[in-house]
Amino acid sequence: MDDTCRCLGCDKQCSYNKMDILFQVMDNENDVTLTDGAGIILRVSDSYEEHFGVTKDYVQGRSVYELEEEGVFKPSVTSVVLKEKRKATIMQTNLKGHNVLTTGVPIFDDDGEIGYVISFNSIDIANVTTIFDEYEKLCELLLNYNNEIHQLRMKEISDKQFVAKSKVMMDIYELISQVADTDANVLITGETGVGKSVVAKIIHETSKRSKGPLIEINGGTIPPNLIESELFGYEKGSFTGADIKGKIGKIELANGGTLLLDEIGELPLDMQIKFLHTIQDKSITRIGGLKKIKVDFRLIAATNKDLKQSIKSNTFREDLYYRLNVIPIHIPPLRDRQADIVPLIISFLGKFNKQYNKSVTFSSDLYSLLEKQTWPGNIRQVENLVERLVVTSKDNNVNIDDLPADMETNIFSGNINYNGVLNDMLSEYEKAIFINAFKKYKTSIAIGKKLGISQTTAARKLRKYVPHYSGGKEYK
């Protein structure tokens, strides 16, 4: 055998004719085409005629570019290979209108140029098309299922009285539905009373861990010397005063469920290090113990602190922060999402009416006034006020004059809402003055003296601004 023969088009009389062997292989394959480096078809397999609707003699010796123009096959995989100088797989349509999955393979000569292109149509494209169709149907079905699951989860969140009217809360509402079923760590931030623990509970209750425990621990309420034993537990006899039976820590109790670590910014630095290792390894060692205990929990952390500022002041570890902050959820204060105030009031009103078996309603003026409050205590303050009004109401209709005496309006306390033109703002300001004055001083005479106006003017303003006021009947 002449070992110097390296190319398929060699003119040497080799004892081992590679071209003949290639043709034999081609004839045993399904639709194989051999072209030269210019795209001229040198040979096609015997099955070509049956599948493409043209004779072998018709295509052999002709350019793939011509046959592509005629629609014998379109597009040409050979032209793609010659242009891109690499293997290519495309979907062709032949003269019979059949879809054919075709792979073209370049064969390079010693100069790095393409000497030949072999293309294979060896896959039963009918089956491939069926598979593709079934795959597309399956993808569509999965998409529909995912949408249904998403809608069910959204409804479940809604059923848990998650009030979301403002855009920012609607975005949080959507985010909860997306992350609930994952095990990604969640960091919830926001002022005290904005609803961080409510969001955490909803995430747990709508997740795949909902049947497991939700274990809550507040890092700000536990004395520093007890935090480690509360989190990690201890073995019997670990220290003086310890329970003789030992104790399981909160982290271990959360196994199979969710651990909600509130006020995580209050954790001492030494506990932050140990907790970081727990998050990384998903294992704990009890105080006084040697054995590592594997724990499977989903972590939700919450804080009202600015952890980035705590990092700068070296009171919080940066590496722990990034471990926690996989899914950040920031809940703005109520004063920054006024659209949520009235829906929250309505929600709490329904809750406490049911709880206390009452049918209390609020006047439109009361809703309007409460919507303008800054609510420094956020949702917790709203909830407490609504409960107080429901419990203390003498009848079922609650008005502005039923508000507690210590409840001041934004405008009267100087926190003016700068929406609207000056006359409207002045009117709101005046209204707030007389509402508060009437609550405090009860009569137009006393109000006139306090504000330095006549009793007649005071009575006229009260009739204008105070619901149910009449000049002849004043509260004593």
Describe the structure.
- Helices cover 44% and strands 15% of the residues.
- It is α/β, with parallel strands linked by helices and 476 residues long.
- It has three domains: 18-123, Beta-Lactamase, CATH 3.30.450.20; 160-332, P-loop containing nucleotide triphosphate hydrolases (Rossmann fold, 3-Layer(aba) Sandwich); 338-465, Helicase, Ruva Protein, domain 3.
- A hairpin with an 8-residue loop joins strand 12 and strand 13 (293-294).
- Helix 6 packs across helix 7 (167-179), helix 17 (422-441) packs across helix 19 (455-465) and helix 18 crosses helix 19 (455-465).
- The protein is elongated and about 115 Å long.
- The protein starts with 17 loop residues before the first helix and ends in an 11-residue tail after the last helix.
Sheet bearing the most strands, described? Answer: 6 strands, antiparallel
Low-confidence stretches: 1-16, 410-414
Query: Could you give the count of β-strands?
Result: 17
What number of domains?
3
- Would you give the CATH topology of the largest domain? Rossmann fold
Amino-to-carboxy terminus distance: 124 Å
What amount of the residues lies in strands?
5-15%
CATH architecture descriptor text of the largest domain: 3-Layer(aba) Sandwich
Average pLDDT for all residues: 80
Rg from alpha-carbon coordinates: 39 Å
Strand order of the largest sheet: 2-1-6-5-4-3
How much helical structure, as a percent, in the residues?
Answer: 40-55%
- Structural class of the helices, strands and pairings? alpha/beta
Count helical runs.
Answer: 19
Shape descriptor reads elongated
Broad CATH class of the largest domain: Alpha Beta
Looking at this structure, what is the CATH superfamily of the largest domain?
A: P-loop containing nucleotide triphosphate hydrolases
